[in-house]
Write a structure and sequence with these properties.
single chain, alpha/beta, Dihydrodipicolinate Reductase, domain 2, six-stranded parallel sheet, 16 strands, about 35% helix, globular
């Protein structure tokens, strides 16, 4: 049977903390200045900005969440801030988790068997939030039933299973598939990519670095030994992608996106430095990714120390860009050319350097009086589900339009949908990006746990 996601607990490794990063107050102390939101003037000043349409609100799409542990409940809280994502079903094999999930989705039908969700005609889109090793069976069943699918990252714990998911998603014409790579949909990340990375504000890429630091055991207790094993799936190699697969995949995917390539090779090291409690998943890792054109990405993650939290830094010949939580700063070299946007920039001190604050014009997704502004609104996960719901609707509408004008025909639907999607699709990762990020993360996890260098093989990325 498919097992549920883990319960909450004081030592839970919360992916929201990774995606949200340090608090605004901490950032202001670090930067010595107050970040500002970039208005239309700033956005227009940066060349070649893309219209991503983040304000789009589609008609409702009925959703179901499978896996109602900590992350599943996080998803339910986020969906509650959207006006067009009613939750009609929730599923978990553990009744207490279902009971807690009901607090966020009181009108949803509760199921103990995911197959009942797939059979539920009211469900249009399925969100798979179970542990990583259980994704394949559920995703393939949902795609086969014609449901739109959001699958958390990584897609699976083996290249073969991830490939099976990607191939099924590719073949499911008329279905929207989105992996849980939230940063691909995040308004702030898109703002930095489109307006600074893409136009060459950093110059030629030289090297990059990223980190994720949080002191937490990744283990929780349960009075039931069988249950304790289930909820601690992250500390076992048999059921976990480790720090690289479960956490680092998000930052690695952003690097693939910004550098427009996947790594040519990866090497690394790891160890159990603190939590020597019988686990076989390292609590500390270091990896070096070798990208084409001699650009290296240095990454480290640990469960043993929280200093400096998480961030990504892109170093170029003209400037460096730091991204931390929901903010970003650019630190220019003295010989970097003026691109026009500097006149609108807000400067802030960081140690001995001065940087320009880069911050997208964020809009809240809730209406006054509907839901109080909270940590769930306007987060990367919020943007991811805005995109998912919108793109599900756009895909279904495209299928209906094609059938109306081409009754009884199926040939040409895929090509029609590609053209149709350009009209109203919001930024989001697809099966290709999800598969490539999974392959990279799994091979990186292999490299760090074995302490060796792995050359990426082109055939691993075939779908």
């Amino acid at each position: 049977m498919i097992q549920n996601e883990a319960e909450n607990g004081p030592s839970e490794l919360d992916r929201r903390e990774f995606l949200r990063g340090a608090s605004v107050g901490t950032l202001m102390m670090l930067m010595g200045g107050i970040p500002i939101e970039a208005g239309a003037e700033t956005t227009n000043a940066a060349a070649n900005s893309e219209n991503t349409g983040f304000g789009t609100i589609s008609p409702p799409v009925s959703c179901a969440v499978i896996g109602c542990g900590v992350w599943g409940r996080e998803i339910l809280q986020t969906l509650a801030t959207l006006t067009n994502a009613p939750v009609s079903a929730i599923c978990d094999t553990y009744q207490p988790s279902l009971n807690r999930a009901k607090e966020s989705a009181p009108k949803a039908q509760a199921y103990l068997d995911y197959r009942k969700v797939i059979e539920d005609k009211s469900v249009e889109a399925v969100i798979v939030a179970t542990p990583s090793h259980q994704h394949k069976e559920i995703v393939l069943a949902a795609l086969q039933a014609g449901k739109h699918v959001y699958c958390e990252a990584p897609l699976a714990l083996s290249i073969e299973e991830a490939q099976a998911i990607a191939r099924a998603a590719k073949a499911a014409i008329g279905v929207n598939f989105q992996p849980g790579l939230q940063l691909r949909s995040d308004e702030r990340t898109n703002y930095v990519f489109n307006n600074f990375i893409r136009v060459g504000a950093t110059g030629k890429p030289v090297f990059c670095r990223g980190q994720w630091h949080q002191k937490t055991s990744w283990r929780r207790a349960s009075p039931n030994p069988e249950r304790e094993k289930q909820i601690n799936w992250r500390v076992s190699k048999a059921t976990s992608g480790g720090l690289m697969g479960e956490i680092g995949i998000h930052q690695l995917d952003r690097m693939n996106w910004f550098l427009k390539s996947w790594p040519a090779a990866v090497r690394g090291h790891s160890g159990i430095m603190n939590w020597d409690d019988g686990r076989d998943v390292p609590d500390t890792i270091q990896a070096m990714f070798e990208y084409p054109d001699k650009v290296n990405f240095f990454y480290d993650a640990t469960l043993t120390n929280s200093f400096e939290a998480d961030c990504d830094v892109f170093h170029g010949t003209y400037a460096a860009i730091m991204m931390r939580g929901d903010k970003a700063w650019i630190f220019k070299e003295i010989d970097s050319p003026l691109l026009g946007w500097e006149v609108f920039g807000s400067k802030a001190e960081f140690y001995k350097d001065t940087g320009f604050v880069l911050s997208a014009d964020a809009t809240k997704s809730v209406k006054p009086g509907q839901v109080k502004e909270s940590e769930y609104a306007d987060s990367p996960l919020n943007h991811a589900f805005k995109a998912f719901v919108n793109n599900c609707y756009q895909t279904s509408q495209g299928v209906r339009n094609f059938n109306d004008t081409n009754p009884g025909e199926t040939e040409g639907l895929a090509e029609y949908l590609q053209t149709w999607a350009k009209k109203g699709r919001l930024p989001a990762a697809g099966y290709k990006e999800g598969f490539e990020a999974t392959v990279c993360a799994l091979k990186a996890n292999e490299a760090v746990t074995q302490g060796q260098k792995i050359e990426m093989q082109k055939e691993w990325f075939d779908i």
